[in-house]
Amino acid sequence: MSTASPAPLRNAYLEKTATTERPCFICMKMTTKVLKAKDGGDFFYACASHLQDPGFAKGEGYPPVPTAEALAAVAAYKKKKAEAEKKKQEAAAAAEASSKAEEDKRSNVSKIGSAVFSGLGSVATRAATSVSAFINDEEATKARIQAQELERQQAEARKKPEYWVLDQRIFFLRQNDIKKRNTKKSTADTLNGLSFPKVPGGL
């Protein structure tokens, strides 16, 4: 009884990470990197060095750079930074104006009383300005961290393509390897289905 022949192997491999190491198909270096045929039918181990070699395989389907998400995060960070700087300048100007007004009002107050009152007002103004700056800086820091994390994720994604296309020579080796395995399996199945006569007793 004949069986249907397997579908032709397509030169498109997904990169996976195995839990155990095996020798690289080319150099026998131990690795956990596995290339699995996108449509099934083949898989093999390939070390990181060979994945970086354009003579071995080339990546296809890298994500676009930069992404709208990353650009939006960077824009948000720049906007918050500008707003924080503007608020800081406004707070400084308001504090200066308030200090000048207080000095005018205290023109008839004694030097000691004026010094004490001015000192307290200055401390309160600086405290309010510090709190405002801290809040703005915290928001800017969060936006900056978010932007940096998105850029880091995109950089990592760009290192790993959607799939790999093997060099034609390497792909030819994979095709031959699959043919050998299929032939061996077919022969084994055929032999298992045969029944050989037993040797007559007494011989």
Automatic annotation (TrEMBL):
User: Coiled-coil region(s) at which residues?
Assistant: 67-104
Which GO terms of type biological process are on file?
vacuolar transport
Keyword terms: Coiled coil
Q: Which residues cross the membrane?
A: none
By its UniProt entry, which InterPro entries does this protein fall under? Answer: Vfa1
Domain of life, per UniProt, equals Eukaryota
Report the GO terms under cellular component: endosome
What name does UniProt use for this protein?
A: VPS4-associated protein 1
Source species, please?
Lobosporangium transversale
